[in-house]
Amino acid sequence: MKILGLDYGDRRIGAAVSDAFGWTAQGLEVIERRKEGTELDRIAALVREHHIEEVVVGLPKNMNGTIGPRGELCIAFAEELRALLQLPVHLWDERLTTVSAHRTLIEADVSRKKRKGVVDKMAASLILQNYLDSKSQR
């Protein structure tokens, strides 16, 4: 069963996909949010192209575990996806995934300009991999 992982942001949405066994996540692309609604069309296309059966959306929580305004936007986005795709959409705690993605890219000596283009995709991969790891431990 393939799962799509999304890192939802104001300007970009990082996308990652699992392998067919649900063991590993790999970055797919970064969806630019230029015109309202076009990102939903692209996500629906990815679901069809990759035969996705579930979606995981990163939920940014505050460090104390509460959900702030950014988290509320992600919850609304997840509900919109659920209605559009008619698939299970899970919210997954994404605290520090973008920070971790930035650190990894800096350690790999990726330039600031190139980091900007891949950090969201990498964060989506981390969100999805964490979700997959938690499922395999059950």
From TrEMBL:
Residues 1-101 form the YqgF/RNase H-like domain. One of its GO terms (molecular function) is hydrolase activity. It comes from the Bacteria. Its EC number is 3.1.-.-. InterPro entries: YqgF, YqgF/RNaseH-like_dom. SMART domains: YqgFc. It is an enzyme of class 3 (hydrolase). It is found in: Cytoplasm. It holds the Pfam family RuvX. Keywords: Cytoplasm, Hydrolase, Nuclease, Ribosome biogenesis. Belongs to the YqgF HJR family. Could be a nuclease involved in processing of the 5'-end of pre-16S rRNA. HAMAP family: Nuclease_YqgF (MF_00651). This is Putative pre-16S rRNA nuclease. It comes from Paenibacillus brevis. The gene is ruvX.
